[in-house]
Amino acid sequence: MYDFAIIGSGVAGSTIANELSEKYKVSVLEKGSNPKYVLEGKNVEINYVYGLGGSAVYSLGNAMKIDIKGYKIKKDIYKEIWEELNIKCPEDRFLNEIDKKFIELGFKKMEKFIDFDKCNKCGECARKLCKAKWTPLNYLKDSNADIFTNFNIKDIEYCGYYEILDENGKKIKTKNIIISAGGINSPRILKKLIDDENIGKNLFVDIFVTVGGILKDSYLNKDVSMLVYKKYKNFILSTHYSKLLYNEIKKDYKDVEEKDIVGIMIKIKDENCGEVLDKNTVKEITKEDFKTLAKGVSEATKYLYKLGVDEDIYTTIPRGSHPGGSLSLVVDDFEIKENLYVCDASLFKESLGVPPIVSIIALSKKFAREMLL
């Protein structure tokens, strides 16, 4: 019998497991094993990762602190995160020439949970595991939790305690359940436990596009993406090499090389208008979202021309990579009912519009500390 069963091994689940397993008997239940990308969504394509460690195993290592509406986080927690993840800005010697040009145009260095002395600038942060970057696997390794992979939940029953049954017949008994499966899968799991028409509604995804063009020998493909950025009210601009962008440009310029592609990501604070369904996700681009994207594309295009891009400007399709908010209409704080809790980005009441990993860790540490009282 476990004291806590945490469903999900991503940023939230790994943080909570690391904290609670010092005092309690904890299990972590993960649907997958090796991390794999999942694409779903109607209108806006949403990509996330399921597998041990969740989406953050393929993150770009961005650390941006921002207030979380409805949740007061103590400064000490952020200080602790910065120390644990060894978060810092890259030194000037780490920057490529293209990064330095962006900084001359008013961009700032991005703080990262990357050991820049170990980073070889492969440009593959979003596609392969890396020892230079912190991921939830670090917290899982440091924890005392029992970790179960390929645990695809079939049913959850309550009989004075919870019995969680997977599709292969394995059963986990626990006094408490913490759902931390992320903005897409947490509502799907919660539907097995309660009946509420608001489950899955209010979804945001931090819609983004990458715009760019040809700039000879810019070598953005051999750089850490989003190494420099510029923040606006409802969006950010950041350097970003995109294979999707490269493929679009290559349709017109057959001989173009990856080293000659320069791109800027526009990531916006989108409206909470999406919904997670049982088998699919629906997210529209609202009129306000479109206006924000258009403004971001306009700003990015100005910078591309200033850098010397003298051919056509291309763009990727709108996508989303930070799903959240999908339980914010159901869960007021963390507790749904006695011995049943939720803690992850599904609780966020509005889009952050910036990389959320530090915010999710902070929220999870706050929750875990409350459980330890």
Automatic annotation (TrEMBL):
<dbReference type="Pfam" id="PF13450">
    <property type="entry name" value="NAD_binding_8"/>
</dbReference>
<keyword id="KW-0274">FAD</keyword>
<protein>
    <submittedName>
        <fullName>Glucose-methanol-choline oxidoreductase</fullName>
    </submittedName>
</protein>
<keyword id="KW-0285">Flavoprotein</keyword>
<comment type="similarity">
    <text>Belongs to the GMC oxidoreductase family.</text>
</comment>
<dbReference type="InterPro" id="IPR017896">
    <property type="entry name" value="4Fe4S_Fe-S-bd"/>
</dbReference>
<dbReference type="InterPro" id="IPR036188">
    <property type="entry name" value="FAD/NAD-bd_sf"/>
</dbReference>
<dbReference type="GO" id="GO:0016491">
    <property type="term" value="F:oxidoreductase activity"/>
</dbReference>
<keyword id="KW-0560">Oxidoreductase</keyword>
<feature type="domain" description="4Fe-4S ferredoxin-type">
    <location>
        <begin position="110"/>
        <end position="140"/>
    </location>
</feature>
